[in-house]
Amino acid sequence: MPDQFSTRIRSTPMTDAMGPLARGTLLTTLVLLVGLVAPVAATAHVPTVHTLRGEPFAGEPWRTLDRPPAHRFRAAPRSSASSVKVANVSADGTRTNGKILAVDPGAGSYSCSGTAINTPSRSIVLTAGHCVVEGGEEGRRIAFVPAYDHGKRPFGAFPVESIYVMPQWRRSESPAFDLAALRVKPNKLGMRLTDVVGARGYAIGKSRLAAFQIFGYPAARAGGEELRSCRAHGLGFDRLTARFAGPPTMPASCDMAAGASGGAWLFDGRYVSGVTSYSYQGRPTQLFSPYFGPEIGGFLRALP
Prior knowledge:
Blueprint: E1 5-11, H1 19-22, E2 30-36, E3 48-51, E4 84-85, E5 97-104, E6 108-117, E7 124-127, E8 133-134, E9 137-138, E10 140-146, E11 158-165, H2 167-172, E12 180-184, H3 193-197, E13 201-202, E14 211-216, E15 228-233, E16 250-253, E17 264-267, E18 271-275, E19 278-280, E20 283-289, H4 294-301
Parallel strand pairs: 1-2, 3-11, 13-18
Antiparallel strand pairs: 2-6, 2-19, 4-15, 5-6, 5-10, 6-7, 7-12, 8-9, 10-11, 11-12, 14-15, 14-17, 16-20, 17-18, 19-20
């Protein structure tokens, strides 16, 4: 669907539609950041999609394991829009980030980014809603590969068995709720995801001007084969999304593009408090995330 925000940052296929939102008035400048990968047959397993609403929640950072902060937050405090390669993707904490591989039934294979988070099932990956459900289509044969690096899969792949999205995304694809949680099966050794790689907690209601470290697998750099990150600060809100239900989305300076959709925005080096959703054509150094307010807080708390 060409008349959309701009580029939702997947890698290709499912980023081409934004559903009812595209038919609103954000118009032609939004880019969904999804990444293209080699074609795969689209007759694959379709995970069950659940619409999940929780009681609104805002409070202290929630459900974090005792993992070290992301390494680059220990270094210089300055922000930069330029992404850098993450040197050791298998490091403790960093390996919670990974690449999502999937098939769009109409257009073929694509990729996104995601992060293992701490929930009771020890099997949940957080990503963008448009990475798995968009324009009436659902991704197929979805798998999460933590610490993916140039074809290497040091912790194996975790097939997705079910998807959780918020009703606001399923109904109208509002950018304020472009969020999805993927429940994955154990790997081939029978081990659950966060028992293998650990997990990030999440934080709700943080300042829109807070410092973040943004992760993703942008296709424009090394073909999406390496994990990259930006140090950034929130830049307030996207006024073009103020007309939609829910809080306006939040921008930050970072130059990642297609394939980076769903990548974590880490607060305080350890809590997910945003995921990459979209960018605008002509503004290559800005990304946008749903703002993690009480409604998203309730959704996260309700996850299995």
